[in-house]
Structure formats: C-alpha cells, structure tokens
Amino acid sequence: MSGAPVDAGPEPLPAGGARFFCTAGRGLEPFLMREVRVRLAATQVECISGKVFFTTCSDLNMLMKLKSAERLFLLIKKQFPLTVSSVSKGKIFNEMQRLVNDDPGSWSNAISIWKNLHELDAKREELSQGDSNPLKRKAGENEIIMAKKFKTEQMQDIPENGECRLEKQVEEETLEQKDCIDQRGDFQEEFQSDAEKAIDTHNQCDLTFRVSCRCSGAIGRTFTAQEVGRIIGISLMKQFGWKADLRNPNLEIFIHLNDVYSIVGIPVFRVPLASRAYIRTAGLRSTVAWALASLAEIKAGAFVLDPMCGFGTILLEAAKEWPNCHCLQKVLILLFLTFHLGKSLS
C-alpha cells in the first residue's frame, strides 16, 4: 500500500548556528544588540557603526520579528579593508576577486544555509499546497463520471431483479474505489518524483544573481559601485557558473567596502524588516518608533498616552508589540482626562 511521501523538511542550521548581520540606524545599535540577545538567544554579538553581527539558530519566523533592524543579511565574509593607497588598480582588482576566489567553501556554505532558510522551504510549500495536480485531478474525475454514466445506461437496458442490481452496484462501487486508490498511488509517486527533481534543481549551480555595492572612503574615491559590482559579478560567474540577472534574480549579493572593513552578505528577505505592513502612512521611522516605545518599559494593562502622536507610529508599534496595553491618542486622552477629573470632583 503506497503512502504519502514524507517531507523531511530543510536541513537544520549548523550546530553552532548561522552568522548574520543587521543594518541599523545611527544610535539604534544598542537596541538591536539587546533585541537579538532576547528574541533570538544570539551569541557572539558584535557591533560596529551601523551594523550588528550575531550568531543564532533561529528560523525565519523568529528572524522576521526583529523590530530595531533595517535589513537582515546572512554573512559570507567580514575582513579587513582593501588596501588602496599607493597600489595599482590591477592589484586592487585582484584583491576584490579574492573575496570570491580565496574561500569558495564559505560561499557554498552560505548558499546552502540561505536555501534551507528561504528558497527550499518556499518551493516545498508550493509543491505541497494541493493533494494533486488540479488539471489531472479534474480529468480523472471526468473519466470516472463518464464511466459511471455509461455503466448506469447499460444497467437500465438490461432487466434485472432487485438483488442482481444491488450486487452489481456494490461491485461497481468497489471497482471505482480501487481505481481511485490506484490513481492516488500513481499521483503520490509522481508528486514524490517532482519534489525530488525540484530539490535537485535547487542544488545545481543554476542560480541567477545581482550584486549591490556600497563603497566609501578611499575605495569609494577610486572605484564606483558599478565597477566593484562588475568585478565581483564576473568572479562569481567564473567560480560558480551563476548567471547575472539585474531585474529579477534568485539571489542578491550585498558588498560594503570602506576604510574599516570589507563585508559580503546575502539579504535574507527581499523587503526590509523596517517596512511594516501595519503602518500605512509614512511618519516617524518604524525602528525609531519601536525604540522609543521600548524605553517606556510597557507592562500588561498599562495606558500608553501620546498627546503629540501625529500619525501614531509610536502607538502602532506599542500596540503591536504589547497587545495587552491600552494606547490612547489625542482626542481619547482628552476624554480620558475629562472623565477621570469629573469623577474625582464628584
């Protein structure tokens, strides 16, 4: 008896966790450091201006809950800055290419973790959404209906007593159930084969990519971001056989070069963490609003008053993060104060 294919799920993260970094607004790095320790049980937390590095075993759902981060990246490389002064451009080109060629294993490992976190889960979810292919299922149902109608017409043409009809009806229903079981078994085998093919396709080096660069300091005065992106892109195509796609790539490579460090990473999410679906009107930056709300140390049942709320971004962040509190805007504050003052005077 054929059973449904068992989905083992994506491979777990390494025992020590994966290495990530987040970008943060100026002054928000302490909030982000505290948040990754509390929410993600992160270890090896390090901070430089505008970025926080950490190691965690958390999944996508937990990573998505970070509130003080702008963007989240899977770290590939973090090393000393490239040497620019009194060095020819050819040597600098070689140093940039070494970001890819020196340690291809770190790239392969990062891509594997990225697939397990995001792309492989998404592909398997698509494959497991339905129990069968809608077109094939519809065609199979039509064939069963037509066969049943044909057999019914044959039964009407042949005069039989009640017992014979009952026996034949039971026999036909048994045959139909057997056909459905056989079709279900065939589909399950086909589904399992399709899933294995999809996983194998993802494991091949057929990714499309683009490179996003930020250059500042001495390296930024010598090269443009487009030049650095072109050098890194050519190295990746030669090393891994990936194809460049500037419009809709599977993978984005982020590179930040300055006088302090050289960082290479992969964005975990296409949309920044700071883009909140529940904030419909642009006002105070969501990360700043969350930080301000967190400073209030809100407890369950507390009243959060914001008399100068504007678009109410701080209140929205407070209500989302602490759903058991009571958030009051300008008009509600006046009503609240009027009620309590009138109650106290009476």
Question: Mind explaining what this structure looks like?
Answer:
By secondary structure, this protein is of the alpha/beta class. The chain has helices at 29-40, 60-63, 89-101, 104-127, 134-157, 162-203, 217-222, 225-240, 286-295, 313-321, 330-345; strands at 18-23, 43-48, 51-56, 71-79, 208-215, 243-244, 251-257, 262-267, 303-305, 326-328. Strands 2-3-1-4-8-7-5-6 form an eight-stranded mixed β-sheet. Strands 9-10 form a two-stranded parallel ribbon. Strand 7 and strand 8 form a beta hairpin. Helix 3 packs across helix 8 (225-240), helix 4 (104-127) packs antiparallel against helix 6 (162-203) and helix 9 (286-295) crosses helix 10.
In short:
The protein starts with 17 loop residues before the first strand and ends with a helix.
How confident is the prediction overall: mean pLDDT?
A: 76
The main β sheet shows up as: 8 strands, mixed
Biggest sheet: strand arrangement: 2-3-1-4-8-7-5-6
What percentage of the residues does DSSP assign to strands (E)? Answer: 15-25%
**Count of extended strands:** 10
Helix content: 40-55%
* Unreliably modeled segments: 1-10, 157-166, 193-204
3D shape = elongated
Termini, distance in Å? 79 Å
Q: Return Rg in Å.
A: 30 Å
**Helix/strand order:** EHEEHEHHHHEHHEEEHEHEH
Number of helices: 11
- Please identify the structural class as seen in this structure: alpha/beta
Write the layout of secondary structure elements.
Layout (H helix, E strand, L loop, with lengths): L17 E6 L5 H12 L2 E6 L2 E6 L3 H4 L7 E9 L9 H13 L2 H24 L6 H24 L4 H42 L4 E8 L1 H6 L2 H16 L2 E2 L6 E7 L4 E6 L18 H10 L7 E3 L7 H9 L4 E3 L1 H16 L1
